[in-house]
Amino acid sequence: MDMQDIPDTDPQETQEWLEALDGVLKQEGAHRAHFLLEQLVDKARRSGAYIPFSANTAYINTIPPQLEEHSPGDAEIEHRIRSYVRWNAMAMVIRANKHTNVGGHIASFASAATLYDVGFNHFWRAQTDTFGGDLVFVQGHSDPGVYARAFMLGRLTNEQMDNFRQEVDGKGLSSYPHPWLMPDFWQFPTVSMGLGPLMAIYQARFMRYLKDRGFLEAQGRKTWAFMGDGEMDEPESLGAISLAGREKLDNLIFVINCNLQRLDGPVRGNGKIIQELESDFRGAGWNVIKVIWGGYWEPLFMRDTKGILLKRMAECVDGEYQTFKSKDGAYVRKHFFGKYPELLEMVSTMTDDDIWRLNRGGHDPHKVYAAYAAAMKHTGQPTVILAKTIKGYGMGESGESQNITHQQKKMGTSSIKAFRDRFAIPVPDDKLEEAPYVNFPEGSPELKYMHERRQALGGYQPARRRKAEPLEIPPLSAFETLLKASGAGRELSTTMAFVRILTMLVRDKKIGKFVVPIVPDESRTFGMEGMFRQLGIYSQVGQLYTPQDADQLMFYKEDQKGQVLQEGINEPGAMSSWIAAATSYSTHGISMIPFYIYYSMFGFQRVGDLAWAAGDMRARGFLLGGTAGRTTLNGEGLQHEDGHSHLLAATIPNCVAYDPTYAYELAVIIQDGLRRMYQEQEDVYYYITVMNENYEHPAMPEGVEKGILKGMYLLREGKSKKNAPKVQLLGSGTILREVIAGADLLEKDFGIAADIWSVTSFNELRRDGLDVQRWNMLHPEAAPRVSHIETCLKDREGPVIASTDYMKMFADQVRGFLPTHHFHALGADGFGRSDTREKLRQFFEVDRNYVAVAAMKALADMELVPRKKVTEAIKKYGINPEKPNPTTV
Ligand SMILES: Cc1ncc(C[n+]2csc(CCOP(=O)(O)OP(=O)(O)O)c2C)c(N)n1
Ligand SMILES: [Mg+2]
Q1: Nearest ligand atom owner, CA of 232
Q2: How far apart are CA 573 and CA 239, in angstroms?
Q3: Alpha-carbon distance 580 to 188, whole Å?
Q4: Is the bond leading into 462 cis (omega within 30 degrees of zero)?
Q5: CB count, 10 Å around CB of 820?
Q6: Of 208, 393, 413, 602, which has the fewest CB atoms closer than 10 Å, so is most exposed?
Q7: Which among 597, 614, 813 is positioned nearest to 688, based on CA atoms?
Q8: Averaged pLDDT for residues 436-448
Q9: Residue 687 alpha carbon to ligand 1 centre in Å
Q10: How many CA atoms lie within 13 A of 179 on its CB side?
């Protein structure tokens, strides 16, 4: 039952208890009162009463006025600075939209200005030679305020401001925080709602990991993350808060701007978002600081001896609170205070303007300062600050507290005028329409103050570091055992080959310690359990129990210095850890080398938006799609058997993807990846699929390294009688082995000479092909460039047949770059299902028999073999021509 629903059956008794409590509060203070209350609840529970925990407190500020820490700043100067920032943020959106339709947001920053201002002036420390810097996740669409401040500090020019959202000519400012587009400025992309909060938690956690492993000192650094109240509806926003609570991340501060509105309307019109979030976070072990009411309310609270004002505040829902601020003081008097005569009486000496001035906590710099100061000092828990604000604050009739405000990018002259007057901006009437930027003159106390504050905090923010010290990468010869043949009868999978490479890397004297193996509860799936003992699983409390398998060689070892991140069944979290590690070169100046291995199906398709953000963030690291391939991962069925992750990888411009077959290919790819990302510091990341089919691996043929990296190389030359028809067979991953077997059939049964190409990356071949095609289009009279695939195939005869364990579209990517139009791509389109590999490859029509038949058909189309030979092949290989298309069953 809700507290409010329990009837008061004995008011006198209630009064006595309350008076007793009052006495304790007055005489002995809040701590003692809290202790006594807990004792009472405990006693009641032990006596058998069912008293569930209520995670909510009253709808008032968590920090009472007498405990507020005071800002050492100059409140008046800060107010003037904030006013100018507000104006410029508004002006840049209005100006950008005068001649364009590029959009932008005014209302969100208008509600959040104080929250950012206090942080910039007093709390957020920059990265310096001796201090690592605080990490600040800015709410994406509040960025005009951040640009406005940077402009006033001389970090951005007038021209850049005027080119907000006009980036193509290189003089603009990005719509939202994007490190890809502004690599010296933005660190964290946040505008895909929910990813900021999630990534911030893992950034804070990764900072701990780096500290515990001895890479850096904690230095009291914090991760601050700003987000909207509407954004909290994203599962990603709240999905990892229990991790932050459990791991006691007191280096993490969330600031949720509760302006009560999202894009379409109220966030919780019929409830109270602040109360809802309070219980969510408190239940997850967070320190919750509510900043609901501004200082102007305090005299009223003092007079509220009977708690009627508090009762009114508690019973009002957010929909009403929003409506109040879209009206005026008279309306608030009538509809808020007017509900109870005592309240009307309480405000009887106040004018409507006085009532209108009653402010919300998130707009009161003193309250915000006190909350931030308390968050900085709090230990043992992460802190969330729930700040109540007004969306579109200052926009007046153009948007203040109005449902349409989120998308307002224009304001009428009368609203601009009201805005100017409200914030005392020195712009004359005849200039209002053009909304010129304002700044404090050189030498003015305000500008001096702004610079001084930042100097005191170590420098300007936001700022992003592009490079770290390069690492010394082992040469390919370090992986020698993988470059040799595995040996007769010695079978292994590419997953096992990968684990061997990883093991070699962690043992490397130079780079071993920088390696971060990450798994979402799948170590045993990939045969990595040996690393538990060898490297330890990271836990900031070490291991508080004797593991069940303690007597075994590879026992489950948790360790404060553990290197492995075992993230639980949590792909978004594991991906966020990977991102934190993969951008550590920038955020911490330490290049970490993360290898995140997971079921390939639960990669891009599950956490694709994070993978996109990783590209934006210039992440450097390895993603391993484990047990990949629609027919190779054979027993797991429809939800597991991935046949498209490479196509999803191809959507990310700086993701380099490979589908290798042999251990030596894997070694070459990983070694070169290390070189490119950690020695050359290229902003790319790798996606590599590894499979679980065991087979023998040959020795690396001479001189194929370049081809492996470019995407294809000749594995075997077709051998047959002179003048025999020829075909070019392409294959990748485990299906390359079917292609080889198909070549044998063609040779043996039909005397066809088949050249076999190992295609390590159809994605890279296509990129190269497109790039060459584009250059040739733009340089029509120059000697044409030739793509790698064309270089490989241009002097070869016969049609081209490709087969892979992925959708046909995967191999089909190269169609336009072949010297012949006789091309047939086989692939595993359709829903997967479980069966033996052999049957699945037959079902999906990617096996040796289909390779042979497709080759015969293509030869017949070229009139190089008679058509009846194709029929003969179909019969010979037992293929039913009326078999349904696998995409339909
Ligand atoms: C994943 C995702 N979905 C939708 C959007 C579009 N969008 C941008 S802001 C916004 C409303 C945000 O409301 P809130 O979080 O309350 O922020 P406020 O502007 O009120 O501060 C929406 C729906 C987005 N950016 N990302
Ligand atoms: Mg909102």
Answers
A1: 1
A2: 9
A3: 10
A4: yes
A5: 15
A6: 413
A7: 597
A8: 97
A9: 30
A10: 24
